[in-house]
Amino acid sequence: MARFTSDDDAGTEGRALGEALFALRRERGLSQAEAGARIGMTSQGWGLYEAGKRPGLFRPDVQRRLTGALDATPEDLALLVGVVPAPVSPPKPPSDGLQARGRAFEAAPVVERRRLQLSTDDLAPWAAAGTVLEYAPDRWPRRDQGCIIEMDDGSLRARLYVRSDEAELVVRGAGALLTIERIPRARARSVAAVVARLDD
């Protein structure tokens, strides 16, 4: 028998998803306008999703698009709601005696995150001294996204990523005007995307 949900149930679930989306955005230190701009949406449009007033929030493709703007996944959203995707159950065997196996559910991989507190205003106004940057060592930054570069001498540099090629990394930072800086690739051990700004 099919299970029907009332409008109240759907509204409650929509609000829970919206609140989880709100929490993800705040954790990343983004405004509704900044998050929406990443996917070509207005702050009002983004706000309707956070308020649970857009039914599209239940669609997997919409969840991927919205969480992608926050450098997150639909699984991150589900975990904040307290809903973990259920394992896929195997289909019933056909009547002719053949059997098929369903795929087992695999949990999302644990993403390592590290933190770095800025001691200078080199990235102002993007991030000021005292701001804690949370970064994912296994995630490459997008254009104009914050990044942490581990240099060959072991030091860490916080910059805004512009582009890279085989020879160099091009970043902005290290000055009030966020000047362009070119770092030879041989000097950079690793580059990691900043996934959250934690301001005091």
Automatic annotation (TrEMBL):
Pfam families the UniProt entry points to: HTH_31 (PF13560)
InterPro entries in the cross-refs: Cro/C1-type_HTH, Lambda_DNA-bd_dom_sf
Alphabetical list of SMART domains matching this protein: HTH_XRE
CDD domains assigned: HTH_XRE (cd00093)
Residue span, HTH cro/C1-type domain: 23-77
Protein name (Swiss-Prot/TrEMBL): Helix-turn-helix transcriptional regulator
Species of origin: Brevundimonas pondensis
Lineage, broadest ranks: Bacteria, Pseudomonadati, Pseudomonadota, Alphaproteobacteria, Caulobacterales
